[in-house]
Specification:
single chain, alpha+beta, tt1808, chain A, 6-stranded mixed sheet, 12 strands
């Protein structure tokens, strides 16, 4: 397997900057992000951002919710999660520090990547909450980082996210359905 890997092209952030279209870069391997998400995916993303923005309002002044923000994990890994909550100021054109919360909305083309590759990356990077939204099942999986490992909880009407020490929010995630 190592012989095969050494012949695969390997790209970096500087290469990625010049590509047309939407791409993620995972450990130097390009991953196309097109076609655009289907309408139901986009609707759920819009409803999620609304619920998180409402929950953050007046509670966490330096925490913001973002859609489709480039998250530069390393020179060889740039991800574009469906939604992020970032506590702290973003100084560059991309996020270069660990967000507090990441949401991926499953689609047939991304399910394996979201449940495996991205799961591992977010866990390794110390993302406190990784939410996987399954539109078909109408289910939100909350993976909470505890002692360096994700612990799964299925959203069942209420959950309190501690984004940082003085920032607790309880978005109404049932409203997305």
């Amino acid at each position: 397997m190592q012989a095969v890997l050494k012949y695969l092209p390997h790209y970096t952030y500087d290469d990625w900057l010049h590509w047309e279209g939407r791409w993620e870069l995972i450990e130097g391997i390009p991953v196309a992000m097109s076609p655009m998400p289907v309408p139901e995916h986009q609707r759920v993303a819009a409803d999620l951002i609304y619920e998180f923005k409402q929950a953050l309002k007046g509670k966490c002044s330096d925490c913001k919710a973002y859609l489709l923000l480039d998250y530069k994990v390393s020179e060889e890994t740039i991800l574009q999660p469906d939604l992020l909550i970032v506590c702290g100021r973003i100084e560059k054109k991309y996020l270069d520090f660990t967000p507090s919360l990441v949401v991926e909305i499953l689609s047939p083309a991304t399910t394996i990547k979201d449940r495996n590759t991205k799961y591992q990356i977010y866990e390794q990077q110390g993302v406190k909450y990784y939410l996987i939204v399954d539109i078909k099942q109408k289910q939100v999986e909350i993976h909470e980082l505890i002692n360096g490992k994700y612990i799964l909880q299925i959203y069942s009407g209420q959950f309190q996210f501690e984004l940082k020490e003085d920032c607790l929010i309880s978005p109404e995630l049932d409203n997305i359905w």
